[in-house]
């Protein structure tokens, strides 16, 4: 029997997870990336398996907080002014999906993916030898006020209604769990379903090497265009090479919109740049990931050190990073972790592929059943990568889907050229 040929564009966590499923299903797999082993969002993220994050970024009332955030040049949200005009459709859509009914619809869709994350992630991790790299220790969200939980009450209630387990904690209970946290912390919420991994870079490296060792071809190269002909899907690479395949999967992270647009699917995708600093010898110990709700950043105890990160900077794919943000986050962390030794940290920044509704784009392109999208995972690409791989595997091999894919369709942006 002839094997299905699959080309996956992108060697980030999403593309590699798709390649894993395609290979497991018996396909001949080629992964194309301009820098397969190089830096990407999947490389330096916070390492959280954030299954409890089922509420989108755009929620009712958010707009009251945005002006304050924007006034602080190193605050949690930045919109680079030169890029703002290009973002109008994205921002308009972001505002539109912030209504209570849209938030309820989107949260349900996010929960439909997140509720099966471990079922898809564990077999992949165990198969490639990463089983010991997942720490199921939950996460702690901390507040600077005794009733911080009440401020975010609607969000927590929405999460609880979608199956998220949580326990409210007093300041003392928080410090019993994480003694490194200082007096600034007045309350917290423990979410046991969250987990974290040892090192995101190790995950993509181990997975890529496992795929290569098990028959996937990994090609270095820039993909210029994906198109469909009567003989199947084609991938045109810089330098003149054209690849043919029964199925092509676009999993190029924040760069995917350009390839989809050439196919006529104008999706709304922006780079949401995030920053962090990893401190190998931080002088403090955390048992689990801590989310600092008032200042919008996180700290994760990775095998490579304590990673302190966050920030959402919208400036397009070409703007240079501003590492003052990494430094500002470390300064904030010192408020919460009085014993933190911040010297010698390594700074990093990466492009989250962000859609306005916080939902990824997963599904067939509108021009061809053979060209499949898998991108736009925003803050949750590591969490949702293996599940996306499974869903795309089902599309590749024509298997029944256990999930309603309509919320994830590229068509939701209704921007198909010529319509
Ligand atoms: C600071 C920060 C913290 C984060 N923390 C978390 C977290 O705790 N948990 C979580 O779940 N998620 C987290 N995320 C989000 C997560 O990292 C991303 O959603 C995820 O890595 C996206 O993976 P990807 O495979 O889609 O894209 P990427 O990892 O960006 O990979 C895309 C690949 O496509 C290649 N490519 C692009 N265009 C082309 C082309 N034309 N030709 C050839 N190759 C191409 C690139 O070279 C790249 O290797 C975080 C992100 C950031 C920035």
From TrEMBL:
Residues 6-395 form the FAD dependent oxidoreductase domain. InterPro entries: FAD-dep_OxRdtase, FAD/NAD-bd_sf. The keyword Oxidoreductase applies. Its EC number is 1.-.-.-. One of its GO terms (molecular function) is oxidoreductase activity. Keywords: Oxidoreductase. PANTHER family: GLYCINE OXIDASE, SARCOSINE DEHYDROGENASE-RELATED. This is FAD-binding oxidoreductase.
